[in-house]
């Protein structure tokens, strides 16, 4: 990771560590901006990858994203737009310990994606039991007020829309909210992807359209206590 950061290093970015993992690996952040290290009146955005050690795709994508932006600034209008209008922070690997041994959890065998405080369920409230990777992220968030964030996972087709949680477990059939799953029909059989979708009708239509282009035969469904109904019916 450190060698990769040295390759990226340039006047558009700086690299710094927000803490260390259980085994002492630095949690490197790549900051990309036309004024790195300074506070700007621009939206701050962060990407986090490799929360689960056995999901390396996000880690690789984020390293490539940082490389692409730095290599194409001055060449590509999109790269220039990002650098000059967004203060971007990229944490390619939150779980370097798990990544090094191809395991989901960290070195203490804790799923970092379940280690943060939850607004609906009183879990992980004991600060002394919180993992160092989790503590590093929470401290970082107190220091920088990010406008938006994204975490990259891999291994399944999942769409979580804000705020990725609710204390109401009933099925929403009215208004503009739908709980559902994504089902794809291939070779005469159904493949079910539990998606925990909480989407507006417009978002559902956009996701359905994109999925059908990639996977012909895609079918969205709404899951309710009474069974499964087609999402197309619910959207009409």
Automatic annotation (TrEMBL):
Which cellular component terms (GO) are annotated to the entry?
extracellular space
Kindly list the biological process annotations in GO that this record carries: peptide metabolic process; protein processing
Q: What is the lineage of its organism?
A: Eukaryota, Viridiplantae, Streptophyta, Embryophyta, Tracheophyta
InterPro entries listed in its UniProt record: CARBOXYPEPT_ZN_1, CARBOXYPEPT_ZN_2, Peptidase_M14, Peptidase_M14_domain
Q: What family name appears in the similarity comment?
A: Belongs to the peptidase M14 family.
Gene this protein is translated from: LOC108832518
PROSITE patterns with a match to the protein in the record? CARBOXYPEPT_ZN_1 (PS00132), CARBOXYPEPT_ZN_2 (PS00133), PEPTIDASE_M14 (PS52035)
Q: Which Pfam families match?
A: Peptidase_M14 (PF00246)
**Residues annotated as domain Peptidase M14:** 1-236
The protein, known as:
Carboxypeptidase SOL1 isoform X5
- Source organism of this protein record: Raphanus sativus
Keywords (A to Z) from UniProt: Carboxypeptidase, Hydrolase, Metal-binding, Protease, Zinc
Q: Which cofactor does it need?
A: Zn(2+)
- Kindly list the GO molecular function terms attached to this UniProt entry: metallocarboxypeptidase activity; zinc ion binding
Which Gene3D superfamilies does the UniProt entry name for this protein? Zn peptidases
Protease found in the keyword field: yes
């Amino acid at each position: 990771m450190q060698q990769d950061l040295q390759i990226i290093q340039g006047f558009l970015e700086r690299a710094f560590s927000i803490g260390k993992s259980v085994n002492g690996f630095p949690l490197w952040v790549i900051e990309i901006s036309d004024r790195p290290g300074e506070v700007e009146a621009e939206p701050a955005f962060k990407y986090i990858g490799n929360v689960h050690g056995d999901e390396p795709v996000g880690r690789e994508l984020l390293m490539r994203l940082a490389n692409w932006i730095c290599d194409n600034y001055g060449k590509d209008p999109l790269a220039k737009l990002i650098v000059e209008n967004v203060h971007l922070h990229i944490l390619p690997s939150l779980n370097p310990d798990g990544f090094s041994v191809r395991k989901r959890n960290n070195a203490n065998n804790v799923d970092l994606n379940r280690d943060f405080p939850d607004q609906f369920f009183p879990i992980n409230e004991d600060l002394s039991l919180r993992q160092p990777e989790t503590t590093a992220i929470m401290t970082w968030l107190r220091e920088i007020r990010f406008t938006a964030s994204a975490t990259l996972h891999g291994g399944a087709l999942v769409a979580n829309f804000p705020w990725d949680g609710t204390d109401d477990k009933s099925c929403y059939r009215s208004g503009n909210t739908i709980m559902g799953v994504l089902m794809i029909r291939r070779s005469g059989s159904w493949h079910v992807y539990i998606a925990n979708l909480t989407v507006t009708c417009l978002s559902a239509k956009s996701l359905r359209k994109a999925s059908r282009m990639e996977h012909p035969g895609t079918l969205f469904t709404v899951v309710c206590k009474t069974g499964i109904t087609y999402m197309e019916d619910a959207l009409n």
